[in-house]
Amino acid sequence: MKNSKLIELLKTFDANEWRQFGDFVASPYFNSNESLLRLFHFLTRYAPDLTSRGLTKEKAHEAVFPGTPFDARQMGYLMNYMIQLAEEFIAIQYYRRQTLQMKANALAEYSRRELEKHYNFLCRKTMDELEAAKPDAARYELRYRLAEVASQHFIRQRVRSFDPTLQNAVNALDELYFLQKLKYSIEMLNRQAIISANYELAFIDEVQNYLSARSELPPLVDIYLHIYLSLANDSGADFRKLIQLLETHSEHIERAEKRIVYLYAINFCARKIRQGKDEYVPIVLNLYLRGIRDRSLFEEEYLSHWTYTNVVKLFLRQREFEAAESFIKTYSDNLSPQSREDALHFNLAELYYQKEDYGEVLSHLSQLNFSDLFYHMGSRTVLIKTYYESDEIESLLSLLASFSNFLRRNKKIAPGLKKTYLNFCNLLFNALKNNPKKREKVREEIQNTQPLAERSWLMKVWKEQGRFR
C-alpha cells in the first residue's frame, strides 16, 4: 500500500491540507460513502509521512471492514474511490486560489439567473481588482473571460444598440492569443536550442509582423515579442530593446511572470557568453542582481544555490572580488537550510582561489558537508587546482586518482556529468606527464574533447608544463 498511487498523492499533503481533506471526506456534499471516512481515519494514524510498515492493505481492510475476510479487490476499489476524492479535493483547492476566476464564474451565473444588481456590483468590484493586479498570462486570460461574460450578459438583456462589450471581448481575445502564441513559440525555440527537436511554428511570422507594425503594444506582449525576436533572429538589437522594456515595466509585472522573463533573458546572455561575447557578462550579472533584489528569481521563499553560485562566478569572471564577497555573505541567509553552509563555503573557496589565498581555500573546503553531488565534484576540482597552484604535485596526483575512482564507481552521477569530470581528470594527468611525443595530441584533445570541465584552466596547465621540458 505504501507504494500505491493513493499514498504517493496523499504524501504531498501538508498538515493543514490533511485536516482540510478530512473535512472534505466527512462532508456529505462530497462523500456519502462511510467506508471512505473510515479509511481516512485509518490513514490518519500514519500521517503525514505515511511510510510506516504498519500501513498495509490488510490492516486498512481490517480497520474499514472489521470482522470480515481480507478482500484485495474490494480494497482496490476503495482506494480508487479515495483517489477520486483526493483529486477532486486538490482541484477545488486550486480553484479556490483563483479568486478572480471564481468571481468571473459567479458573474456568469448572476447573468444567467438575471440578478442585475448582484451582477453590476460584482462586475465593478472584479474589474477594479483586475486593473490593480500586476499583468501576467493569467490576467490576460481573465480579462478575456470577463469580456466574454459581459458580452453574453449584453445579449441576454436584448438591448437593440451598439454593443461595446463585443469589441472588448475581441480585443481581449487578440491580446491573449498574441501573448500565448509568443510564449509557446519562445519555449519551442528555447527547447530546440537545447535538444534535437523540430517544432512547427505556424503563423508566428504573421504574428510578429503584425505586432511589430503596431505603434503601441501592451507591455507584457511587447516584452515577449522582443524575447521571441532576440531568440529567433539571434538579435542583439532586439535584446537591447528587451532590456529597455524590462527596465521600464518590470516593477509592474507579476513576480512569477517576471521570473520567466528574466530566465529567458539570462539564457540568451549565457548563450552569447559561450560564443565568446564577454560584453554580455555585465548584462547578465545585472539581470541576476535585479531579479534577486526584487525576489522574482527566488524559488518560493529561498534563493536557489545554483543562482547564488552563478552570480558569484560572474563577479569572479570580472575580478570584482569585493563585490563577490559582499554578495556571498549578504545572500547566504536567503539560501535553503539544506544547502546554505555548503554554498557559502564552496563559493568562498572559489573566491579565495581567484585571490590566490590557497590557505583560505583549504579552510573553506574542509567545512563542506557535500549536501549535493555538485559540491562534491566542484570542491574536488577546486582542490585539484589549488594543489597545482601550490606546487603540491604528490597531493594533486593522489587526489586525481581517488577522484577518478569515485567518478567511475558512483552510479548516482548522471553519465554526461561523469564523463565531463573524467575527461578533466584524464587530460590533466596527461598534461602533467608532459610526454614530448604526445604534447601536441594532448593540446588537441583539450581543445576538442566534449564534454569537458575547466577547459581554459587545462590549457593553462598544458602551456606551463611546456616550459619545464
CATH architecture of the largest domain: Alpha Horseshoe
Question: In angstroms, what separates the terminal alpha carbons?
Answer: 67 Å
The tally of structural domains comes to 4
Question: Which sequence of SSEs, written as H and E, runs from N to C?
Answer: HHHHHHHHHHHHHHEEHHHHHHHHH
User: What helical percentage do the residues reach?
Assistant: over 70%
SS elements, strand count: 2
Mean pLDDT across residues: 92
Tell me about this structure.
It is a single chain. The chain has 469 residues and is mostly helical. The chain folds into four domains: 5-97, no CATH class; 112-176, no CATH class; 185-396, Serine Threonine Protein Phosphatase 5, Tetratricopeptide repeat (Alpha Horseshoe), CATH 1.25.40; 397-469, no CATH class. Helices cover 72% and strands 1% of the residues. The chain has helices at 5-10, 15-26, 34-44, 57-64, 72-97, 99-112, 116-132, 137-156, 164-194, 204-213, 219-233, 236-249, 255-274, 281-293, 305-317, 321-331, 340-354, 358-365, 373-389, 393-409, 415-433, 439-448, 455-466; strands at 298-299, 302-303. Strands 1-2 form a two-stranded antiparallel sheet. A hairpin with a 2-residue loop joins strand 1 (298-299) and strand 2 (302-303). The mean pLDDT is 92.
